[in-house]
């Protein structure tokens, strides 16, 4: 299993859990190119499962820390999303 995070502060709680089935915890940096580069390296290991994790819940008010959100596609942006207006637009 490979778990991808853009930022180390997103990955830090996961490192503390040290889940057993995880082969790699990858912090790749913000943006599509960083995500694409990391995926290209680690997907060559033929992982059983790939998880892209992060702070996306901050975009939707009813989600809480630890909620699981699934998507059929990887959604990422090329910069940190900081303004309330941009968060509303992405939500």
Uncertain segments are none
What is the global morphology? globular
Overall mean confidence score, pLDDT:
80
Number of strands: 3
Q: Estimate what percentage of residues fall within beta strands.
A: 5-15%
Strands of the largest sheet, in order across it? Answer: 2-1-3
SSE layout and pairing:
Blueprint: E1 2-5, H1 8-17, E2 24-27, H2 32-42, E3 50-52, H3 84-90
Parallel strand pairs: 1-2, 1-3
What does this structure look like?
This protein is of the alpha/beta class. It starts with a strand and ends with a helix. It is built from 3 helices and 3 strands; from the N terminus they run βαβαβα. The chain has a 3-stranded parallel β-sheet, sandwiched between helices.
Give a short summary of the structure.
The protein has 91 residues and is an alpha/beta fold. The chain is built from three helices and three strands.
């Amino acid at each position: 299993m490979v778990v991808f995070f853009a930022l180390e502060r997103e990955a830090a709680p996961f490192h503390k859990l040290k889940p057993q089935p995880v082969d790699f915890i990858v912090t790749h940096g913000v943006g599509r190119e960083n995500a694409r580069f990391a995926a290209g390296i680690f997907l060559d290991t033929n992982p059983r499962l790939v998880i892209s994790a992060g702070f996306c819940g901050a975009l939707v008010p009813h989600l809480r820390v630890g909620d699981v959100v699934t998507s059929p596609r990887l959604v990422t942006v090329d910069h940190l999303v900081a303004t309330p207006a941009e968060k509303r637009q992405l939500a």
